[in-house]
């Protein structure tokens, strides 16, 4: 039994939040639960005092959403060494360099003071914080971002400490900061718990080198390093942010395909706006996609492999973590030819099926028309049969067209990880590490699954952002606060009930095939 208990959250997606000057919230913000989060931490502290065991709070990826911070600094007052503001950045937001990422981090802190005040108090109470990066906050890779996070958190700690005792306690604050750990990949408790964000099992959001995601752009001046982003990040930056700026509910649909289907039925103007933004986003993503044959990229891959090995050495299981890294999906966009192939494969396949079906119907129509018209000498019969046949053909063609081009349930976009894929990865990890609990985030869909043939459970902690999910709306409100609690070695999936001030078990529906 470990000396601490664990609480795992994922996909909070803090971004610009509330503007301090206007007191209005960014249209791209998806986290509105600063107060409930702070009250949940107070409740966790009360539990810890009763049992004399501290908590380790694990924020499992996408804690912050750098992709949705689209503010830019005043070009005439840029900090020293800050990259220039190009027209592209002015329209879509800053890049991913260390200086730009640090500036975005400061905007997130400005927009969520209540959240970070609660987090600082939780650490001063003696609990621990572990942060894992995801695909929306891969910017944790930069040391400048990690150091600035600790500095800003220290400011909140000093304010709280001065309120409790005049002059403050530097040693108490230093000890609290020492309890913050920002990890590059996973968190692992031998025999008990494995925590990873999960984006690396999703080719749309998988990084080439997640532990060392450097981009060496020949057009980038020396010293202005960027992050090598996956396709899903470009989808958000160049396309979906523009949609969400007009319709703030867009990101809350559990499947973007469901959102687009809703638009087709209700809001044609926004459909036009979607189409108008798609071509620029496609061309910009195309420009960002290139092969990586350069020897410098081989050096980056080597560094990434070394960091994987170091993670395994830290946990005294080097071969096991190399095997886990090998489970990761290859990202979309290894080159422009692959990018086009992955982007166009599904629509072209559906188009071919549609055309083939319509051609088949036309041959059937020709055969039936010739047979009916040639089998009767009555003009009335032939005219009536021809009219019925023509309308039947048109109706059947329309039905086939709609059926073949409908949004499929298997369709995936920038964050639609198939739960079966994540479950399969969790089962493989459990087999490699012989661990009792495996938990991911990323998919925004809570999940609870017992690995067949093993005393192992897989959990997905979902998201604290609003979710519009027609299938699960009976058991999942649009806004709720899921968490995984591991207390005394026993895990359970819960949600925070802010009205009652307690945790309650989170209901997860059976899969359709189970019923």
Give a verbal description of the structure.
The protein is α/β, with parallel strands linked by helices and 515 residues long. The protein has two domains: 5-288 and 290-332 and 413-476 and 483-514, no CATH class; 344-404. It contains 14 helices and 14 strands. The strands form three sheets. The protein has a seven-stranded mixed beta sheet with strand order 4-3-2-1-12-13-14. The longest helix has 39 residues, at 336-374. The chain is globular, with a radius of gyration of 26 Å.
Quick take:
Helices cover 46% and strands 12% of the residues.
Keyword list:
515 residues, single chain, seven-stranded mixed sheet, alpha/beta, 12% strand, five-stranded mixed sheet, 2 domains, 14 strands
Secondary-structure map:
Blueprint: E1 5-9, H1 34-51, E2 55-60, H2 87-92, H3 98-111, H4 113-124, E3 128-132, H5 143-164, H6 170-178, E4 180-183, E5 187-189, E6 193-195, E7 214-215, E8 226-227, H7 231-246, H8 256-266, H9 268-288, H10 295-314, H11 318-326, H12 336-374, H13 379-404, H14 419-433, E9 437-440, E10 447-450, E11 457-460, E12 482-487, E13 490-497, E14 502-505
Parallel strand pairs: 1-2, 2-3, 3-4, 6-9, 9-11
Antiparallel strand pairs: 1-12, 5-6, 7-8, 10-11, 12-13, 13-14
């Amino acid at each position: 039994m470990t000396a601490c208990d664990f609480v795992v959250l994922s996909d909070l997606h803090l971004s610009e939040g509330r503007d301090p000057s206007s007191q209005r919230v960014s249209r791209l913000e998806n986290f509105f639960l600063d107060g409930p989060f702070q009250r949940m931490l107070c409740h966790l502290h009360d539990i810890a005092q009763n049992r004399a065991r501290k908590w380790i709070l694990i924020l499992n990826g996408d804690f912050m959403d750098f992709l949705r911070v689209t503010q830019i600094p005043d070009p005439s007052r840029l900090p020293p060494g800050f990259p220039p503001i190009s027209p592209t950045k002015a329209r879509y937001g800053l890049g991913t360099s260390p200086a730009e990422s640090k500036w975005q981090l400061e905007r997130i802190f400005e927009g969520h003071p209540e959240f970070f005040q609660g987090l600082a108090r939780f650490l001063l109470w003696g609990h621990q914080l572990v942060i894992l990066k995801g695909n929306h906050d891969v910017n944790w890779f930069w040391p400048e971002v990690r150091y600035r996070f600790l500095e800003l958190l220290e400011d909140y700690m000093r304010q709280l400490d001065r309120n409790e005792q005049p002059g403050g306690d530097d040693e108490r604050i230093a000890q609290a900061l020492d309890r913050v750990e920002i990890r590059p990949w996973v968190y692992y408790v031998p025999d008990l718990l494995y925590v990873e964000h999960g984006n690396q099992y999703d080719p749309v959001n998988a990084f080439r080198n997640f532990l060392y995601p450097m981009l060496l752009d020949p057009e980038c001046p020396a010293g202005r390093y960027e992050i090598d982003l996956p396709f899903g990040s470009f989808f958000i930056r160049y396309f979906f942010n523009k949609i969400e700026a007009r319709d703030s509910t867009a990101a809350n649909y559990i499947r973007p395909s469901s959102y687009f289907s809703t638009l087709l039925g209700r809001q044609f103007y926004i459909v036009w706006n979607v189409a108008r933004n798609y071509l620029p986003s496609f061309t910009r993503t195309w420009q960002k996609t290139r092969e990586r044959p350069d020897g410098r990229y081989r050096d980056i891959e080597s560094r990434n492999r070394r960091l994987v090995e170091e993670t395994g050495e830290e946990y005294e299981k080097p071969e096991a973590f190399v095997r886990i890294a090998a489970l990761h999906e290859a990202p979309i966009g290894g080159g422009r030819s692959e990018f086009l192939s992955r982007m166009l494969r599904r629509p072209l396949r559906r188009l071919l099926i549609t055309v083939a079906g319509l051609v088949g119907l036309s041959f059937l129509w020709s055969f039936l028309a010739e047979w009916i018209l040639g089998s009767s000498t009555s003009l009335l019969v032939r005219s009536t049969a021809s009219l019925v046949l023509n309308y039947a053909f048109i109706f059947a063609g329309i039905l086939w067209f709609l059926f073949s081009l409908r949004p499929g349930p298997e369709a995936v976009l920038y964050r639609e990880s198939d739960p079966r894929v994540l479950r399969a990865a969790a089962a493989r990890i459990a087999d490699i590490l012989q661990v009792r609990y495996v938990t991911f985030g990323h998919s925004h869909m809570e999940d609870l699954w017992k690995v067949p043939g093993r005393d192992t459970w897989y959990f997905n902690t979902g998201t604290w952002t609003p979710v519009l999910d027609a299938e699960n709306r009976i058991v999942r409100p649009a806004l709720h606060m899921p968490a995984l609690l591991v207390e005394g070695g026993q895990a359970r999936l819960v949600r925070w009930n802010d009205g009652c001030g307690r945790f309650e078990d989170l209901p997860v529906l059976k899969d359709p095939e189970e019923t």
